[in-house]
Amino acid sequence: MCGITGIFDTRGVGDVPRATLHRMNESQRHRGPVEGDLYFEPGLGFGHRRLSIIDLATGQQPLFNEDGSVVVVFNGEIYNYQDLIPELQALGHVFHTRSDTEVIVHAWEAWGENCVSRFRGMFAFALWDRNQQVLFLARDRLAIKPLYYALLDDGSFVFGSELKSLLAHGGLKRDMDPLAVEEYFALGYVAEPRTIFHQARKLPPAHTLLVRRGQPIPEPKAYWDLHFSLDNPMGVEDASAELQHRLQESIRLRMIAEVPLGAFLSGGVDSSAVVATMAGLSSGPVNTCSIAFDDPAFNESEFAKMVADRYQTNHHVETVRSDDFDLIDTLARLYDEPYADSSAIPTYRVCELARKHVTVALSGDGGDEGFGGYRRYRMHLMEDRMRSSMPIGLRQPLFRTLGRLYPKADWAPRMFRAKTTFEGMARSSVEAYFHSVSIMRGPMREQLFSDRFKTELAGYTAQEVFEHHAAKANTDDPLALIQYLDIKTYLVGDINTKVDRASMAHSLEVREPLLDHELLEWLATLPSSIKIKGQEGKYLLKKAMEPLLPNDVLYRPKMGFSVPLARWFRGPLRQRVRDAVLGPRLAATGWFNKRYLEHLVEAHESGASDYSAPIWTLLMFEAFLRNVAEPTAALHDVAEGAAA
C-alpha cells in the first residue's frame, strides 16, 4: 500500500521542480513510511511512498518495463497478478521482480487501456509511456483506492492519492465549489467526481484518464459497471453453498502478504463472516482487533468475543471512552475535504489498534451494499410498495399535505415518527431514497443557506447526483436500484474514503473481500427476494453463515459503529459547538443563515430536537475551513508534515 503523486507538463517538456515534487510526495509519507523515491524526465515527475506488503526486496517504485520506456507508480493490490504473470511471459514479457506492480507495465504493453479490465483488486495508478507520449491514470472498480487530479493555470497536470498532495504543490487554487458544499451538507461528503475545490477532481470509480501532451484533458472513460440482472434461478440452499465458495476464494486472494496479517472484528455479521472464513483458510490463529466502548449503548465487544472464542483467534481489544472527541481537527486535516461521518472516530481508533499487531487487516466493508443489510432498505421497500399501489395524482397531493402538517417528532418512538414517511410517499423512488439518506434534507438546507449562497447554486441540488446514477442503473427493481445508488455514492464517498484515510493515517493496509467485483457481479444476478426476506436483511449471507457463526451474532438487531453525538453536544462539547457553529468562520463565508444556525444549536441544547447530525456536519465544516481551506494554516501543516 502506497501513496503516489506526480506532475506532468501538458504544454511542453519543461523541468519539473524537484523541491515541489518532493514536498507533494512527503505530504503523503503516512501512506508509505518504509521508503520513497522520485523519478524525473523532461516534462514529467513521479513520486512514490511505499508501505511494503508483497515482494519486500524488489518491489520498489517507480517501476519500469524492460527498456525503461514505460514507468508506473501504483497504490493498491492486484490480487490476480500471479495468474497474469505466466500469460504475459508467454507473450514475451520479461519480469525482474515478483511484485504485482510489474504486471501493470507489461499489461499496458500487451493490452493498452484495456489492461484495467484484466485486474482484480484495489488500485489507483499513473503510468507514463514515453514512446506514445501519454499519461494514463486508472482507478479500481469500487474506488477503494483514491486518486485526485487537477489541471493548474500554468499547464501542469498534477495528481495524487490524497488532495493534500495537490495542495502541497502550491499552485492549486483554494476556491471552493458551491455545488460541492451543497453535496456535503446533503450527504456528509463531496460526491465523485467533484472535490471541495473548483480546480481539483476525483477520478471516478471504474474510470481511466488518458492525457496526451499538447492536447486538451479529456473526460475520464468508464471501463466497468455493475449490472443487476436478477435472473439467476438459484435457490437459497444452492446460493448459500456457492456464496461460501466465493467468499473463500475472495478471502484467500486477500490473505497473500509477506507481513503480519489480521482482521477487524466488530461483532457484526460482515466482519464475523470474514473472520470465520479466514479461520478455515489459515494454518494458525487469526489476528483479530476490536474496539469496545465504555457506553453500553454503543458496545458490541461481547459479540466480537463470541466469534474470537469460537475460532480461538489472537484477539486484541481496546476500550474507547465515550468522550473520545479529541480527533475533530485531526480528522479535518486527514480527509482534506469536509467529511461528516462521525464513525470516522472509532474507525481511526480500530486502525490505530490494528497497526500495533498487523500491517494488513481484512474488513467486512461492503456487506450492507452487496447483501442488502441497511435498515433503510427495508423501509424504502415498504414505502415503494405503498407508492406503487396508489395513483401518482392522488398520492402526491395527499402525502405532501400530511408531510407538511405532521410534526417532526424526533423525541417519539420510531413508530410515531411518520413525517419522513409521509414526505417520502409524495416523492419518486429515487427522490425518496435521496431524501431518506440526506443528513440535512431539502427543507433544512433551504433554511440553512443564505440567499446569496442559493443564488450561487443556481438551482442545483445534490439530488442530481442520485438522478445521474439512477439513469444508468438499468433496473426497475426497487432494492437493486438503491443498492446500485449506494454502491455509486455512499460506498465510494463515505465508507471507502473513511477506511482508506483512517487506515493510511496509521500506515495500515485494509483489504475488503466483500467488495471483490466478481463476487458483486454474481450477487447482482440473484433475485432481491433472497437478499431481504420479510424484515430480515442480508438473508442469504446469514443463511450461508449459519454453520459457522452463532445465531446471537447473525440474528441480533443491527447496531452500527457510532458515537454519542447528541450527549456530547449537550455536555462536554456544548461550548465548542457554539464557538464553531455560531462563530466568525462560518459567518465570514456569507453562505449560512445565522438565525437558523442559532435555532439548530438552541433547539438541540434544550432537548426540543435532536440535531446532532446536522451540528456535527457544521462542526466538521468549520474544522475544515480552519485546518485546510485557509492557505496559511494548510501550507503550515504541509511544511510540518514534510519536515517530520
Overview of the molecule:
This protein has 644 residues and is an alpha+beta fold. Among the domains are: 2-175 and 197-222, Glutamine Phosphoribosylpyrophosphate, subunit 1, domain 1 (4-Layer Sandwich); 565-643, no CATH class. Helices cover 45% and strands 14% of the residues. The chain has a six-stranded antiparallel β-sheet with strand order 2-3-1-9-8-10, covered by helices on one side. The protein has a six-stranded antiparallel β-sheet with strand order 4-5-6-7-11-12, with helices on one face. A five-stranded parallel β-sheet has the order 15-14-13-16-17, sandwiched between helices. α2 crosses α3, α25 (574-581) packs antiparallel against α27 (594-606) and α28 (612-629) crosses α29. The chain is globular, with a radius of gyration of 24 Å.
Kindly summarize this structure in a few lines.
The protein is an alpha+beta fold and 644 residues long. Among the domains are: 2-175 and 197-222, Glutamine Phosphoribosylpyrophosphate, subunit 1, domain 1, CATH 3.60.20; 565-643, no CATH class.
Summary tags:
alpha+beta; globular; six-stranded antiparallel beta sheet; 644 residues; 45% helix; Glutamine Phosphoribosylpyrophosphate, subunit 1, domain 1; 29 helices
Beta-strand proportion: 5-15%
Low-confidence stretches: 411-416, 632-644
CATH architecture of the domain at 2-175 and 197-222: 4-Layer Sandwich
Number of strands: 17
Helix content: 40-55%
- Major beta-sheet overview: 6 strands, antiparallel
Assembly status: single chain
Strands of the biggest beta sheet: in what spatial order? 2-3-1-9-8-10
The CATH superfamily label of the domain at 2-175 and 197-222 reads: Aminohydrolase, N-terminal nucleophile (Ntn) domain
Taking the alpha carbons of the first and last residues, their distance comes to 20 Å
Mean pLDDT: 90
Q: In the CATH hierarchy, what is the class of the domain at 2-175 and 197-222?
A: Alpha Beta
Could you please say which CATH topology of the domain at 2-175 and 197-222 applies here?
A: Glutamine Phosphoribosylpyrophosphate, subunit 1, domain 1
